[in-house]
Amino acid sequence: MPELPEVQTTVAGLNRFIPGLVINDVWTEYNSPYFYGSNTIKDPEYFKYFKKTIIGSRITGVSRRGKNILIELSNGYIILIHMKMTGHVMYGDFNRKDPYNRHIRLIFYLSNGKTMELCDSRKFAKVTLLKTTSLLETEHLKDIGPEPLEKKFTFESFNNQINKQLNKKVKLVLMDQSIIAGIGNIYADESLWRAGIHPEKLVGEISIKQRKILYTAIQKTLSCGIDFGGDSMSDYRNIHGEREKFQEQHMAYRKTGSTCLKKGCGGKIVRIVVGGRGTHYCNAHQAIK
After folding, report:
1. Which residue out of 168, 212, 254, 277 is catalytically annotated?
2. CA distance 192 to 56
3. DSSP letter at 211?
4. What are the Cα distances from residue 77, in Å, to 4, 28, 80?
5. Residue 282 · residue 265 · CB < 8 Å
6. Do residue 166 and residue 130 come from a single domain?
7. Which of 42, 65, 67, 171 is catalytic?
8. Are residues 132 and 178 in the same domain?
C-alpha cells in the first residue's frame, strides 16, 4: 500500500503539471450497483454528482493529508484520492508497457489534452468529493493523527500520541493512522530496524531513551523514502508510470534470511506476523530485552 513517501511523491509530481488545468471530462470503471450507498464514485449515483460538480473546474493545487491525495478545485471542492493497497496516479504520457500500469479505473480529461489516470488492479482505492470549508471535519480526515514530518511534530507530540496505546505492540501503534499519519507496513518495519526495537514490544515497555531514538528513526526513514521517490517493490509507480527506488534501501522489509546490515550486528532478518501483517526484524539488535 502506498504510504506517506509514495503519496508525497505523487503529490509533488502532480503539482508540477496539473495546477491551472481545467477538468473537461471524467470516466470511471468503478461505478457499479454493488457499491450503492458508498458515498464515493463507486456508487453510480454519487459518480453522477461527482462528474457534474468537477467538470469545468480549474485545478488550483494538490496537497496531502496522511495517505490521502487532495486535489483542490476552483469551485470550493476537493477531490480526495486514497490509493489504498494497489493504486497509483499517473499523468500524461506515462509508461503503458509496465503491466502494473494497465489497470486503469478512473480518467480525468484535462484542458491541455492530457489525462490524469488512477491505476488500481484490485479496485480498492477510494475517490470522493469534499467541500473545502469542511475538509478536516469529514469522516475521511477528521480522525487522522499528526503529520510526522511537520515541524510541530516534536518528540513531546510523538510521546503523547503513542502513550494513548501503552498496552499495544509498537508496530501496530505506528501503523494506527489515528496516532501518526502516513506510516504503514514498510516504513514501520524500517523505522523499528533503525531504532533497534522489536515490533512486538509493548509501547509501555519502551524507555524514554528508546522512544527518542524511534522518533528520530521514523523521521529519517520517511525522509529517506521521499528522497528515493517511494517504494516500488510491488505496485506503486510515480506519475510517469515509472518505478521508484526506496526498495533498494530496505534493511528489514522483505529481507527474510539476510544477514543484518547494521555494523557489527551479525543477526539475521526474520519474518513474523503482527496484526495480520508480514513483519521483518533483526533477531539480534532488535531482540526483546
Report:
1. 277
2. 47
3. H
4. 23, 19, 10
5. yes
6. no
7. 67
8. no
74-127 pLDDT per residue, tens? 999 999 999 999 999 999 999 888 999 999 999 999 999 999 999 999 999 999
% of the chain at pLDDT higher than 90 = 91
Say if residue 66 is in the same domain as residue 165: no
Q: Judge whether 137 counts as a catalytic residue.
A: no
Is residue 4 pLDDT above 80, yes or no?
Answer: yes
For residue 264, being part of any structural domain is answered with yes
Give CA–CA dist 55/256, Å, rounded.
48
Residues 131 and 14 reside in one and the same domain: yes
Query: Position 85: which residue type?
Result: M
**Residue 277 a catalytic site member:** yes
pLDDT band, very low/low/confident/very high, at 289 (cuts 50, 70, 90)? confident
Cα Rg, the chain, nearest whole Å = 20
**The model's pTM:** 0.96
179's grid cell? 496516532
Same domain flag for 92 and 27:
yes
- Domain span at 63: 4-137
Task: Assess whether 262 carries a catalytic annotation.
Answer: no
Catalytic residue among 2, 5, 148, 199: 2
Based on the residue annotation, tell me whether 211 is a catalytic residue of this protein: no
Residue 37 is predicted with a pLDDT of 64
Number of domains within the chain: 2
